[in-house]
Amino acid sequence: MKIILWSVLMISVLCPASFAASDSEVSKSLDKMAKELVSAYQTANPKKQKTTMAILPFNTSEELAKRKTGNALAELLTHSFRKYPNFALVERVDLNKIFSELKLNMSGAVDQDEALKIGKLSGASLQVLGSMEKIGSKYNINARMVQTETGDIVATAFKTVPASLFDEEAKYYLVDAPVPKTQAIGIYLGYLRKSSDFQKSIPTIDSLGSTLMGTDLRLEPLSYAVGARYDLSSKIQFDYIYYVVNYKMSVQAEAPISGIDTDLDSTLSLKGSRFLVAYKLPFSKKINSYSGFGVAVYTLENVASGIITQGPGGGNQNTVSSVRLAKNSATVPVFHERLEYRPQSRIAVGLSITYELGKKQRFSVVGRKFGVLSQFHLEPTIGVYF
Questions:
Q1: Which one of 6, 135, 249, 361 is at 20 to 30 Å from 113 when CA atoms are compared?
Q2: Top-level CATH class of 23-169?
Q3: What's the pTM?
Q4: What mean pLDDT value characterizes the chain?
Q5: For the chain, which residues make up each domain, given as ranges?
Q6: If we measure between CA atoms, which residue out of 89, 80, 91 comes closest to residue 52?
Q7: What distances in angstroms separate CA 238 from CA 92, 93, 125, 276, 377, one per listed residue?
């Protein structure tokens, strides 16, 4: 027990310290980069006083550009250059306006000619720009300081920083990474709409001359479904769902000869699991279609509660609480079709239709067949991928 307590204490003490040290590693590297560039410039221009400078987004690969990694690097470098009072930095808001005027993307690549235009429009005498690429688990950063008027390079610097630490320190400037095309996992919630065909009343003739009537059968609005998806590849997806659908009805049975009257509230509960293998067919950048086959396993359970009255004038009353009237299980093959809309890479809104290929499943009330469940059901869902 003491060992566990000491372990927890050491983790709680050392982890924040290690994270703090890791976070500062990137800042230290960028501070050194800024110092090298400033020193080289001041050595070449010892009499130069206050100088206006613009720090532009660094050129990156298309994947890093989607996350605005080059823009994030420029933001972090801006903090490093603010330590030098002889440099007046062009504000990011002003640079955004210039990029907009030139119809450039702040997260995209900027060539030499565009950089000179930006520098002249911003009034900056100097510009800091460069490239950033990911090699393994590290970012390689090449920076250069350029004279706006002539385009001459007056200083260069190179640094390597751990990618994970940079992403952590720059998280407020980065756009979330897109969901991978393979091995992505999705978790979703849904509402399963499964209709039924039932009889309003079922007259029966037995030795007591009783009559059974069923009314008010409806789908409960709180029916739900939860599920998970896994993208095995860019085209194949596994899908598992667990769902619960409740139907409620009032059941009345009257036996005039024996004087037995039954008034029960009956709940038919459908609980099921389904596993699918689906094929993905893209419709557009944000809409995909999934078609597949699988198997569904579920149970139908009918539970009733209410009052049974017997005798003249209802002299004897018995309260029935949670009595199971019937329980059936089924395993059926299914066909599934889903349209999924992704307003963002991680958010998914879907609408599915599932058809059971087996026989229609029948249900009963107090031992008598009362109706059948539809082989079709509808599933609106909303989920998150990561």
A1: 135
A2: alpha beta
A3: 0.55
A4: 79
A5: 23-169, 185-385
A6: 89
A7: 45, 46, 57, 6, 19
